[in-house]
Amino acid sequence: MRIFRTALAIAFKHPIYLGVYVLFLSLIGSFVTGGAAYVEEDTQTYEPAQASLAVIDRDDSDLSEALEGYLSRIHDVADVPDEEFALQDALATNQVDAVIIVPQGFEDDCLSAARSDGDLPRLQVAYGGYTQASAFAEQQAARWVSLAGAEAALEPEASAAEVAAAVDAAAGRRADVEVEAAEVATSSAYPLQTYLSFSTYTLMCSVVVCVGLVLSKMTEPDVRRRMLASPLRPRRLGLNMLLGCLVITVGVWAATSAVGVVSSGIGTLVVAPAQVMLALVAMLVFALVPLSVAFMLAMLGVGEEGLNALGNIGGIIMSFLGGAWVPIALLGDAVQTAARFSPAFWTNEAVASLLSAPQLTADVLAEAGCGMGITALFAVAFAAIGLAAARSRPVQ
Predict the structure, then answer these.
(1) Residue 251 DSSP SS3
(2) Whether residues 150 and 205 fall in one domain
(3) Quick one: 23 and 145 in the same domain?
(4) Same structural domain for residues 126 and 228?
């Protein structure tokens, strides 16, 4: 156990890293996400979610005008110029929650696709801060387009104005809605979910630097020669070193999780302890990724300065692709595709599915398990690279 104690001693001899990367970043995360809470609303009545929209009509046709009129009746439609900077500024300043763009040729494409069994045109949508209402508005707009396509297919001789009038009449019909209180309120879980998303950065920095420093110190040529000359078998040496690194990783995860639960998740923990515990397990699985990255970097010979730089840069990039800084829905298609190659994305998907579910079901567990499994595969991949680098190192 001397190797195990030595690994822990190396980590505790650098309290500045533990203080800054673990405690300070965790506290920063709790302050940053402290305002990410929704006000509880009366659950006895139902009011449809209403978003502030900017509808950009580039087609100027009967169908596009009817669609804009439909959205203006159920949402607040703001007047925003059809300019790239103006649209980005409206989203960034929360002037609007979403921008819906009706592309040029929308009416012709919709009618021809409906009457030739083709694909209906899609609207371009960009989200702002209130993603729930924005997503609902997008679904309503897509439903209106689907109704227009169905009406055009059923009435081949109908004009665009006649199709628009029929769709407005059909879209105005609403079903009676009754409100049932869910077991878990999304508003109570949202701050914890936001904190855990931010903590992907905290875990990445903390574990890469602290564990990487331990491994780099213990694999220095002089230290390595002394360990190989000891009576302990190399396998037992490696297991003791691995155990020490695991304890450090679990300690970082525990401290980060404790700050998040105390600052943001007490209410959710009381109401839904199982969901919170599973969400924390998902974060523990994610912590294995920076552990593997630290092992890989140490085996590649990266020193203390390199670990600090790569830990911070990797943490920022990984958490950004996970949606910690900007919602993924606001980013371009290329970034959204790249995000799926980040373990933080899959971890946040698992956490979101658990904390947003009223109760645990087989589907929720399957979705969360899928996210955890993919995250674990990233850890295995980085560890494999580290093992290959370790085997290629000469014994000095």
Answers:
(1) helix
(2) no
(3) no
(4) no
Tally of CB atoms within 10 A around 35: 8
Where residue 67 sits, what CATH number does that domain have? Answer: 3.40.1710.10
| Segments forming the whole domain that contains residue 266 | 2-37+184-392
Q: How many domains does the chain have?
A: 2
153 and 248 in a single domain? The answer is: no
Report if residue 46 sits inside a domain.
no
My answer on whether 334 and 357 are in the same domain is yes
Taking CB atoms within 8 Å and a gap of at least 24, the contacts of 359-364 are 359/183, 359/184, 360/274, 360/275, 360/278
- Residue 178 within a domain: no
Judge whether 40 and 186 are in contact, CB under 8 Å.
Answer: no
Amino acid 57 reads D
> What does the chain come to in residues?
396
Q: Where are the beta strands (DSSP E) in 58-123?
A: 76-78, 98-102
Same structural domain, 82 and 140 = yes
With 0-12 / 13-18 / 19 or more C-beta atoms within 10 angstroms meaning exposed / middle / buried, residue 245 is buried
Find, among 305, 358, 344, 252, the residue nearest to 23 by Cα: 252
Exposure string (b/e) for 148-183, b if CB count within 10 Å is 16 or more?
bbbbbeeeeeeebeebbebbbeebeeeeeeeeeeee
Note down pLDDT in tens along the chain; length 396 residues: 677 787 788 888 888 888 888 888 888 877 776 555 444 444 555 566 677 888 999 999 999 999 999 888 888 888 989 998 888 888 888 888 889 999 999 999 999 988 888 889 889 888 876 667 778 888 888 888 898 888 888 888 888 888 888 888 887 666 666 655 544 444 567 788 888 888 999 999 999 999 988 888 877 766 666 666 566 666 677 787 888 889 999 999 999 989 888 887 676 677 778 888 999 999 999 999 999 999 999 888 888 889 899 989 999 999 899 888 887 877 788 888 998 999 999 999 999 888 888 788 899 899 999 999 999 999 999 999 988 988 876 655
My answer on whether 310 and 279 are in the same domain is yes
- Sheet containing 98-102, strands listed edge to edge, beginning at the edge strand earlier in sequence: 76-78, 52-57, 98-102, 124-127
